[in-house]
């Protein structure tokens, strides 16, 4: 099966649309959370995600805050301002859908899905080989897909010598995965690796291959909607620079 893996859309509908168009036909979509926060289109994003067939989706930290299961004070000023605004504009239907999603990890075939990490699904960032190493003890499947850091990445555990290396996934090249690995598809709506293009991945669940992808979208259009909504200017600026 051809599976679209997306994460951290952050209410950026234009980026999501570009990703869905670029991905083409898929059998399933796995979404690793943070549907909302930062961006100007929480309702459009949620309505689009809700329409995806064969969707598996876990909650991210911004989503958990929106459904009232985490104090907004846990977020820095600009992130909090976006969440307060999102709370106000989100429709009741979208709020209900958000509440129906799991806050924990989810297992699908060979893969454990988590927003942050298998050890701490809501908050922990897997950013380096040390945090990856510690997390391999917290899931049983060959692979784990995480989001949250907004950085497309791949951590490989060598089971013989128990060492973890960070590998670079080549763009648009299907890489055969060897157990065990932690993979991050990057962020659809707010990439933070200085490449402003939307990030996602295609996972083939039979062949166990992973294809990291990037796609350009109309950033100026999203920046304009951020400004019109009166959201923090920082969230508009960073989109063009990818941080
Ligand atoms: Zn996020």
Keywords:
12 strands; binds zinc ion; 243 residues; six-stranded mixed β-sheet; Purple Acid Phosphatase, chain A, domain 2; 8 helices; alpha/beta
Q: Could you characterize what this model shows?
A:
With 243 residues, this protein is of the alpha/beta class. The protein has one domain (2-241): 4-Layer Sandwich (Purple Acid Phosphatase, chain A, domain 2). The chain is built from 8 helices and 12 strands. It has helices spanning 13-23, 42-51, 61-66, 77-89, 92-99, 129-135, 219-228, 233-241; strands spanning 2-6, 28-31, 55-57, 106-108, 111-113, 143-145, 153-158, 163-167, 175-176, 181-184, 198-204, 209-215. The strands form 2 sheets. Strands 3-2-1-11-12-9 form a 6-stranded mixed β-sheet. A 6-stranded mixed β-sheet has the order 4-5-6-10-7-8, covered by helices on one side. Strand 11 and strand 12 form a beta hairpin. The protein is globular, with a radius of gyration of 17 Å. The two termini are 33 Å apart. The mean pLDDT is 96. Residues 8, 10, 34, 60, 148, 150 line the site of zinc ion. The site of zinc ion has 6 residues, from loops.
């Amino acid at each position: 099966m051809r599976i679209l893996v997306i994460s951290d859309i952050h209410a950026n509908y234009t980026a999501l649309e570009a990703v869905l168009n670029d991905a083409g036909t898929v059998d399933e979509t796995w979404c690793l959370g943070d549907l909302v926060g930062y961006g100007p289109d929480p309702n459009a994003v949620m309505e689009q995600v809700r329409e995806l067939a064969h969707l598996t989706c876990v909650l991210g930290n911004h989503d958990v805050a929106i459904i009232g299961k985490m104090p907004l004070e846990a977020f820095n000023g600009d992130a909090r301002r976006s969440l307060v605004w999102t709370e106000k504009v989100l429709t009741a239907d979208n709020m209900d859908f958000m509440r129906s999603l799991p806050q924990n990890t989810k297992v699908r075939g060979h893969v454990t899905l988590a927003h942050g990490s298998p050890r701490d699904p809501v908050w922990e960032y897997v950013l380096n080989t040390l945090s990856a190493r510690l997390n391999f003890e917290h899931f049983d499947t060959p692979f784990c897909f995480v989001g949250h850091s907004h950085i497309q990445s791949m951590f490989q555990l060598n089971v013989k010598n128990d060492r973890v290396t960070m590998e670079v996934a080549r763009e648009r090249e299907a890489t055969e995965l060897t157990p065990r690995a932690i993979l991050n598809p990057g962020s659809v709506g707010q990439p933070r690796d200085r490449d402003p293009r939307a990030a996602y991945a295609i996972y083939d669940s039979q062949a166990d291959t992973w294809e990291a992808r990037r796609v350009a979208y109309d950033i100026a259009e999203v920046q304009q909607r951020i400004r019109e909504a009166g959201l923090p200017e920082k969230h508009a600026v960073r989109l063009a620079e990818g941080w």
